[in-house]
Amino acid sequence: QVQLVESGGGLAESGGSLTLSCAASSTVSAMGWYRQALGDRRELVASTNRGGVAVYGEFVEGRATISRDNAKNTVTLQMNSLTPGDTGVYYCTADRFGRTYWGQGTQVTVSS
Questions:
Q1: What sign has the CA pseudo-torsion 84, 85, 90, 93?
Q2: Dist. CA 96–CA 112, nearest whole Å
Q3: What is the DSSP string of 29-90?
Q4: Of 19, 58, 103, 112, which residue is most buried, by most CB within 10 angstroms?
Q5: 9 SS3 class
Q6: Beta pairing class for 106-111 and 10-13
Q7: CA-angle at 33, arms to 39 and 62, nearest 5°
Q8: Distance between CA 112 and CA 100 in Å, rounded?
Q9: What are phi and psi of 85, to 5 degrees?
């Protein structure tokens, strides 16, 4: 089992930025962030492998940066130019031995 502890999130202003962090309890391979708006399906925000190669969701459009610290098993997501459309629950994910683990999610609300 891998436990994921998320931090960050909360209320942000339109045009502002957010920083989300996640710590895994074990060594993991890929780590990333998904988000889910109310009534929508869950979608990829960004993910990265242990080598630092990152993949971003199409909606990100250059507004996000994902980084990780392999020694600490942590991943950080920074996103700027926020809009109310970025509101949702953000979930940390991590892969270990072919299984994907999910955090409990952290709410991000962007006010207009």
A1: negative
A2: 38
A3: S-EEEEEE-TTS--EEEEEE-TT--EEE-GGGTT-EEEEEETTTTEEEEEE-S--GGG-EEE
A4: 103
A5: coil
A6: parallel
A7: 95
A8: 34
A9: -65, -15
CA–CA separation, 37 vs 52, rounded Å? 27
Which amino acid appears at position 107 of this protein?
Answer: Q
Scored b (16 or more CB within 10 A) or e, 28-37 reads bebbbbbbee
**25 to each of 2, 38, 91, how far by Cα in Å?**
6, 29, 16
Q: Decide: 110 and 83 in contact? Cβ < 8 Å.
A: yes
- Cβ of 82: how many Cβ atoms within 10 Å? 20
CA–CA separation, 14 vs 33, rounded Å? 20
pLDDT for the residue 109: 98
